[in-house]
Amino acid sequence: MSADRNSWEWPFRCTNCGQPYPTKGFPYCCEKCGGLFDYKDQVSYDPVQPSRPGRRSIERYRRSFPLPANVDFVSLGEGDTPLLSHRISSRQVFFKCEHLNPTGSFKDRGTAVLVSALIAAGIEEAVEDSSGNAGASLAAYAARAGIKARIYVPESASGPKSLQISAYGAQVVRIPGPRSASAEAVHREAEGGVVYASHAYLPHGIAGIATLAFEIAEQLKGYPGTVIAPVGHGTLLLGLHRGFQALQSAGEIDRMPVLVGVQASACAPLWGAFSDGVSGLDRISEGVTVAEGVRIIQPLRGDAVLQAIAESGGKMIAVDEEKILKGRDTLARRGLYVEPTSALVICALEEVLETCPDPIVLILTGSGFKTLGV
Ligand SMILES: [Zn+2]
Questions:
Q1: How far is the CA of 20 from the centre of ligand 1 (A)?
Q2: Above 70 in pLDDT, residue 148?
Q3: Which domain, by its residues, includes 334?
Q4: Is the predicted pLDDT of residue 69 greater than 80, yes or no?
Q5: Does residue 56 sit within a domain?
Q6: What is the distance in A from the centroid of ligand 1 to the CA of 17?
Q7: Residue 204: left (phi > 0), alpha (psi -120 to 50), or beta?
Q8: How far apart are CA 168 and CA 164, in angstroms?
Q9: What is the CATH number of the domain that holds 335?
C-alpha cells in the first residue's frame, strides 16, 4: 500500500458502540460488539461530470464513494440505465431498468464500489453468500479486479445464476437448506479469517446504490414523487434513501420521494413489522417464493429501512405468490423481461396508484435471463 492508502480512514462507525471501522483488515461487522458498520455522515452528491455517450460507469460519482483518491475504480460499465416512461391506468409511470447492468442486476452499483474498496485494502481473496444476483455481481467484479472469489449459494438457487457465477471463474459452494444455511457456512469461513465481502453487512456499497437516486433525479430533471423497490436485506431501498438525502442536501431536489418497499408474502418480515410492529414478526416464516432475491427472514438493516420508509410517508407491501409470475408476464408484455423478484414492484403499483404522488418510479432489479424456465 502507498503512504496515502496507509493514512486512509474509512468513513464508517459501528452503529451499536460507535467504534470506527479499522484501518487494518476488512471485518464485516464490529470486532468489539458484533454491530453493523454504517456511514458516520451523510453520503454526498458531487458528480465529476455529466453522463457521456460511450462512457457508461458510476465512476463519475466517485467523490461520493468511500475510496482513497489514488485507487483505480473497478468498473464493468455499470449504471446509466434507461428510465422508460409507460402509461399505466392513465398514469405516467417510469421503469428504471437496472436489469440492464453488466451482470444483470442493480447489485453492480454497490459491487463496483465494494470491490474497489477491497483493492484499496489489498485484499486478494473474498467469500460471499447469495441466492445469485449479489454472488454473480461479486464474481464478475472480482474477476475484473483479479480477486479470488468463493460464493456460497443455497442448493435451491436457480441454475442460470450459479452458472453465471462459475463462468466468471468464482468457486460455487452449494449448501442444502434455506438461504440462512448458506449464511451460516460463510460466517464460519469469515471466522477463519477470510474476508466476507457481504453486500448486506458491509457499508462500502451503499453509496454505489445511492447513484441510482442520482441518475433518477438527473433523468427526470427533478425528484420522483414515489419510488417502489423490492426489499430483501434492504440495501436497495436504503441506498435510494441515502441518495435522495444527498440530493436534497445538495439543493438538487426540494423534498424526499415517498418510498414503497415490497416483499413476497411468503417471507415478509419488514411488511409484518411495518403493519403490526414487533408482534408482526412472530407470524413471519422463511417460506418458499419465486421472488428468491427477497427471501430474507432477518433483514440486517431492517430498522433503518423501516425508518426511511416511515420518514418518507411510504409503506411496506406484501405480494401473494400467485400474483408474482402474473406480474412478471405483465412486464414482459411491455417489453421488459425481468426476474420474478422484480415483478413485485408492478404488483405493488396496483395498491398505491391512487394514493402516491407522481411521478412514480419502479425499480426493475434483475434480468429475466437469470430465471429462464421459471
Ligand atoms: Zn461495535
A1: 8
A2: yes
A3: 83-106+203-371
A4: yes
A5: no
A6: 4
A7: alpha
A8: 7
A9: 3.40.50.1100
Q: Does some domain include residue 6?
A: no
Domain count along the chain:
1
Please give the distance, rounded to the nearest whole angstrom, from the Cα atom of residue 109 to the centre of ligand 1. Answer: 27
Is the whole model's pTM more than 0.90, yes or no?
yes
Cell numbers 427526470 correspond to what residue?
A: 220
CA of 117 relative to ligand 1 center, distance in Å: 21
Residue 23 phi/psi, 5-degree rounding, is -80, -15
Q: How do strand 83-88 and strand 91-97 relate by DSSP bridges?
A: antiparallel
CA of 70 relative to ligand 1 center, distance in Å:
29
Q: Is residue 117 part of a domain?
A: no
How many angstroms does the Cα of residue 265 sit away from the middle of ligand 1?
33
Calculate how far, in angstroms, residue 57's C-alpha sits from the geometric centre of ligand 1: 34
At 373 the three-state DSSP class reads coil
211 φ/ψ angles, rounded to the nearest 5 degrees: -65, -20
Instruction: Calculate how far, in angstroms, residue 11's C-alpha sits from the geometric centre of ligand 1.
Output: 15
Residue 65 lies in a domain: no
259 pLDDT more than 50: yes
d(CA 368, ligand 1 centre) in Å: 39
Q: Give the Å distance between the CA of 21 and the centre of ligand 1.
A: 9
How much is the mean pLDDT over the chain? Answer: 90
Give residue 156's pLDDT.
Answer: 75
Q: What is the pLDDT of residues 283-331, one digit of tens each?
A: 677 778 887 777 777 888 888 999 999 999 999 999 998 999 999 999 9
